[in-house]
Amino acid sequence: MAARLIEDDPALAHEHALAATRRAGRIAVVRETAAITAYGIGDFSLALRELRTYRRISGRDDQIALLVDSERGVGRPDRGLEEGRGVDRSTLPTEVRVELAIAMSGARLDLGETERALQELDIPELDPDRAFEWSPALFAARAAVLEELGRDDEAQLWRRRADVAADALDDASGVADHEVLIVDETEDPDAVIPADPDEDTADQGMSDASDAEPGEAPAEETDAGEPVAVSSSDESDESDESDESDESDKRAAADDETDGEDR
Fold first, then answer.
1. What DSSP line would sit under 99-167, residue for residue?
2. Longest Cα–Cα distance in the chain
3. Angle, vertex CA 257, rays to CA 255 and CA 258, nearest 5
4. Average pLDDT estimate for 155-177
5. Is residue 116 a contact partner of residue 109, using CB atoms and an 8 Å limit?
6. What is the pTM of this model?
7. In sequence order, what are the beta bridge partners of 227?
8. Which of 7, 94, 144, 165 is least enclosed by beta carbons within 10 angstroms?
């Protein structure tokens, strides 16, 4: 819940995070979320406490940049620099290493060490020819330091590079595409409605029955769908009886004629 609310309502997100710490305070991600939301509302003291607890539980330094920034927030940029220098940067993921460089540069600016702030940003990830997820923030941070140094032309160049990198990332991720598809659910009178297979089967059965000759039993179907002719045994018996009756009548008539001649 806190993760969903942190951008729209940081204060409410922080309330949810604090509630989670009361229920599951020994879970690292819970303390991490509490730190992030505390930082989001400007409670840097609480953010520091939660960040240290998170690092102690998880053994990870992936929130080191936030810790440095929180030290800056409470007015201790020098302490933030100490925290940042105490981490082996080679063990950090690239995006965390970039975030740490930006935070360290900010701490240098807080101390008035502008040239050293620029040096903090001289890292391999500072590549103006390619855009990564960390590039816009890194380029913008360099532009800010250059402005502090009075190198306005260079600052403008790096700010433009930050904008270009952000646009390129948006295009690559589809964020820039805002096409809206409107689905009209009004029934189309000319639309062709697919036939129901069950109705087709029933119609076919009625058609077969109507095509049968009068007195002829319709064909039945087996489970496999094969038609089976139905034999009319009653009609055959009646036909045989009728033939035998006709023969008897003929013989009786012949006998009558013979008796008449004899008389």
1. HHHHHHHHHHHHTT-HHHHHHHT-STT--TTS--TTHHHHHHHHHHHHHHTT-HHHHHHHHHHHHHHHH
2. 159
3. 65
4. 86
5. no
6. 0.64
7. 221
8. 7
